Amino acid sequence: MINQNPDNLVSNPIERASIEGYKFSWFDWFCLWYPPGWLILFNRHWQHYHSDPDGWNWLEYILFLIPGGFYLALLIRWLRLGCRLPRQENTEFDPTYQQAFRQEIIAPIVEYYFRGELLQIENLPSTEPMIVAMNHAGMCFPWDFVSLAYLLNKQRGWIIKTLAGVSLFDHAWMIWWLPPGWSKVLGGVRAELDDFTAVVQERRVILYAPEGLRGPRKGWRKRYKLEKFDLSFIQLSQRFKIPILPVVCIGNEGLHPWTINLQKLQHLFNLPFLPISPLIPIFILFPSMGVWAMRSRLRYFIQPLKPAVSGEQQSENKRSFVFQQAQRLREKMQSQINSLLNKNIENKA
């Protein structure tokens, strides 16, 4: 059922993809519709294309599906590895594996589970580069950005990179949950200025959350209110003459509903946020659900492209000018969110 024979694993995803893609079995479909199984899907797909001797095995996967079984699986794996962490390897972005993962794993999740769709498609440019700036919510695994990346790739065929919080790369849970270098191989870029600058210079399509972690941290009560925007994306847009494409997502607030963030506990456990909701007892029983989210309808409303501002248009106080640009964009996106919510209320009335 779960084939992990090392002889069948090829370290080069390009070579493996040319031979045989990943095919969904009945077990994979079961994992898709049984929330604790999503982590199994991610790891099984990786192991289909990569040699992963330190990864999870079939016995541990079965334990994921049992209440509290993840803790036993973690202990078994730790003992199997000689009481050490999984080996961390030097990995680089692999657009071929990114495409395979999107088509074979992300596609059924986005299309059948999150029901993602692009709207106002006439505003979507046909050429790159650009910084795609989107409101961020949900207080969970960043499915709003993963789904948007998939939809943009499907619509335009773009190779896309996503700026992501450093916890997706370094946190202890991620080291155990997912294969080493998983986020980086799939196009994740650490949300640090040097890394952001480097990827902007590559002149690709970059997904970016102007709210940063303030977005998911705001919780359910402020789910439709945009938090303060960072300034770095405006500065880099101006510096490298790259336009900004604002996108408003409606539905990402429902990925993990009814949440509040407890900041003291968040800092105590060194987490980017610590959501407390009625779902938490289930997460405690099934920690593998950390990459899962509630079923939602993710709708992405593409706004008109915002050209990069030239140096001649800037005022003498450059930082003040950048702040005004970020504030103006935030106000426009907030206005669009409010308008879309009002239309939804009218349609339901």
From TrEMBL:
One of its GO terms (molecular function) is acyltransferase activity. It comes from the Bacteria. The keyword Membrane applies. The chain crosses the membrane at residues 26-46, 58-79, 158-178, 273-294. It holds the Pfam family Acyltransferase. Keywords: Membrane, Transmembrane, Transmembrane helix. Residues 130-252 form the Phospholipid/glycerol acyltransferase domain. This is Phospholipid/glycerol acyltransferase domain-containing protein. It comes from Chlorogloeopsis fritschii PCC 6912.
